Each structure stands twice: as C-alpha cells, then as structure tokens.
Amino acid sequence: MMDEQERLSYLLKRYAANECTADEFDELFLLIRGNSDQPEVFHGLKEIWKNTDSNAAKTEHEWETLYRSMKEKPSKSIHTKSKIIWGIGIAATLLLVSGIALQFYKSQKPVVNSPVTKVKSAPELVPGGNKAILTLANGKKIVLDGKNQGVIATQTGITISKTANGQLIYQLSDVDDNAANSDAYNTIEVPKGGQYQVTMADGTKVWLNAMSSLRYPLRFKNKERKVELDGEGYFEVVKNPQAPFKVQTRDQTVEVLGTHFNIKGYQDETSIRTTLLEGSVKVKSAGISKTVLLQPGEQASMTANSIAVKEIDVELAVAWKNGSFMFNKDNVADIMRQIARWYDVEVVYSNEKVKNNLLSGTISRFENASQVLDILELTGLVHFKVEGRRVIVM
User: Fold this and answer.
1) Dihedral, 89, 91, 96, 102 alpha carbons, nearest 10
2) What percent of the chain is helix, strand and coil (3-state, nearest 5)?
3) Contact 261, 206 (CB under 8 A)
4) 125 contacts: CB under 8 Å, gap ≥ 6
5) Which residues are CB-contacts of 199 (< 8 A; sequence separation ≥ 6)?
6) Same domain, yes or no: 269 and 205
7) Taking Cα atoms as reference points, which of 79, 110, 78, 76 lies closest to residue 94?
C-alpha cells in the first residue's frame, strides 16, 4: 500500500499527464495542503512537476504558483456556491478558491507580472431575473414581472396566465372552428437581464434567455406548428406526428415532431448553434440549401456558408436554463457577451488581444457581477474595471 508521499507523487504525475479524475484532484489538493509546512514535500513535488514529460516546459515559477495556490487557505471573499469543474490541460494555470478548482485555458502565453486591477465592488450589478414584455394580437403590451400573476388576458378562446416563478401559460377553452384557425400571434420579448418561460396552447414549453424574443400563434393550425425565435431558447416540444413543429431563426429552420433542443442564434454572433438533447431534429439552412439530421448529443453550427455537426456535452448548451454560466475553452469575447446580456451591462475592451484568451468552468448565474468578475480575475489573464453599468476588459 502506498504511503502518503508515494500517493502525492502518484497523483501529481496523473495530474501532469492529463489523467487525474475529479476525486483524485480533490485528494491531491488535500494532501498538498496537509503537507504544506514540509520543505522536502515542496522540493520533491517540484522535481516531479519539472521532469514529467508532458510538462517539460514548465518553469519553476509556474510550479511555485501552483503549489502556493494549492496550499493556501480558502478565501472567504468568493461565494462557495460558485461551483467550478474542469478538465486538465497542459497550457493551464491552476488556482484554488474556497476549496474549488479553477482551470483556465489560454491561447497564448500569459504575461508574467502583469498589473492586477481589482474589480470594483458593484453591488448594483445584480443578476437578471424573470421579466419580459408580452405583446398581444391587438397590439396591447403587458409587462411580465413579479408584480402580477393569475389570468392576465383572454384571446380567441385562449386564457393566458402568469405564475409567480416566471412562466406564461396558454390554456385552451371551448371555441368554434373559426377561432381555432385564427391567425392571431403573440410576441414575448425578454430584455437584457431577463429570462422567461412560455407554455403554449399545445403544451410545448419554451425557455427564453436574455435578449431573446419569440413570436407564436395563439393556436397552431392543424398541419403545422411554427414559431419564430430571435436570440436563444430551449424547447420541450409535445409530440404530434400530424403537425411537425418548426422554429424559424435567421437563415435557418429547425423541424421536429417531439423533442428537447436548444437554439442559440443571437444577431451579434457569427453562427447559429442548435443542440439536441432528446429525439431528433432537422436543421435546414436557407443560405446554402443544406439539411442535416441531428441525433441526441450533437450540435449543428450554421454560418452563412456551412453547417458543421459535432458531438458536445449538452449541459454546456443548456447551462443558462439551469442557472449557470458554463464555459468549455470559450474565448473571453463570447463569455463577456453572455455576461453583458444577463447583467445588462456594456462591455468595452482596452486591449483587443484579451478577447482570444480561452477559459473553462461553471459559475452560478445568480451571483452578483462583481463576484463573477472576481473569479475570472483570479487567472491573471484578464482584468476588469467597472464604471456604473460599463465593464472595461483589460
């Protein structure tokens, strides 16, 4: 059986070789902290770190940073419910905060001894919540927030109700055939700093992310169910073989019978990403007249000239719906767009190069912006200055 020092060496080698499991990483962290006052442990592990083939380029400075971060006591300044989970990468900088591992990936070498500008406390930059504006078929607008609930409108045999937890529910009532075939449409618009859920008359559920809108009929016609999405939405479609469900976005149509999928198609992003969790969907491109059929666990990424399909961790695509920011080697520009939408802030860059820095992790969407930015700053790869509702990225 291995003694403690042998176990430490074994775990560090597995970490350096990209083979460390989450449980093994936790064990490594605890063992290093428990032996942090023993110089021989420091020097022995440093030699393992420097001599591991996959980490031949590692410097003494990088080892000292890693070791120091591992043995430090938890910081109380970071909220412990920000859960961070990582894969291990050779180009990574490892930090531990509140006993949580943060792994960040960078596309270029970090600048050593770069100045750190602490993010200003910004308690006013609170996370978003359940809010939207509903536009009825007659043009009337209804603000959806925490102030009103219960029945808020009736239209052509449809009762529209709002719940306290941010859901809009359409329910059928007895109507004649003419009303059933009505072309009346509603539109729900979710602003920056908002999210909302809609249950349509057929039972299909749609979750809308910040800066998104959905246009949909009060009642679906007999042979087709079609809605229009701008922004990001997660769909749980009720199966109806006689009436396929279609989601129209810019230059793309997704067609399904009954399934769970996410579409991210913001105007300020270069691609439209459709991720399938359950069932199957057809993704059609108007621009290049191409159709692909997705299976669960696949994502179609459509640009003006192509559609590419790949397997992904679907949790990444629906993390926003489940209350998290989840990044997997995403660049800073993409991450800051998500932060800008959710916290209703303007993001500007004092250095364009920082946009290409890559990082991975999971942070609760219900932390204040200052806490999220603090966590990102811990990498030393990106710094922030907050001025009112403007976040300057440096």
Assistant:
1) -60
2) 25, 35, 40
3) no
4) 343, 345, 368, 369, 370, 386, 389
5) 167, 168, 169, 170, 205, 206
6) no
7) 110
What is the phi-psi region of residue 88: left when phi exceeds 0, alpha when psi lies from -120 to 50, beta otherwise? beta
CATH number of the domain where residue 232 is located: 2.60.120.1440
Question: Which amino acid is it at 330?
Answer: D
Boundary-marking domain end, from 257, 285, 312? 312
**Residue 173: inside a domain, yes or no?**
yes
* Full-model pTM: 0.71
> Do 280 and 236 belong to one domain?
yes
pLDDT at 222: 74
Which pair of tokens denotes residue 95? 């930090």
Pairwise CA distance, residues 113 & 49, whole Å:
22
Domain that holds residue 302: 224-312
Q: Nearest-5° angle of CA 45, CA 94, CA 110?
A: 110
Q: DSSP assignment of 174-238, as one string? A: ---HHHHT---EEEEEE-TTEEEEEE-TTS-EEEE-TTEEEEEESS-BTTBEEEEEEEEEEEEPP
Token output for 232:
């990001």
Three-state SS string over 136-170 comes to CCCCCEEEECCCCCEEEEEECCEEEEECCCCEEEE
**Is 256 a domain residue?**
yes
Q: Which residues contact 217 (CB under 8 A, 6 or more apart)?
A: 182, 183, 184, 185, 186, 226, 227
Which pLDDT score is estimated for 116?
Answer: 42
- Distance (Å, whole) CA 375 – CA 278: 33
- Reported residue count of the chain is 394
Could you tell me which of 42, 51, 40, 39 has the C-alpha nearest to residue 13?
A: 51
390: confidence class by pLDDT, cuts 50, 70, 90? very high
Tally of domains in the chain: 2
Same domain flag for 268 and 193: no
**351-369: pLDDT as tens digits:** 888 999 887 778 889 989 9
Residue 98 near residue 80 (C-beta atoms within 8 A): yes
Pair (281, 245) in one structural domain: yes
Domain annotation covers residue 77: no
- Evaluate if residue 8 carries a pLDDT over 50: yes
- For residues 84 and 100, is the Cβ–Cβ distance under 8 A? yes
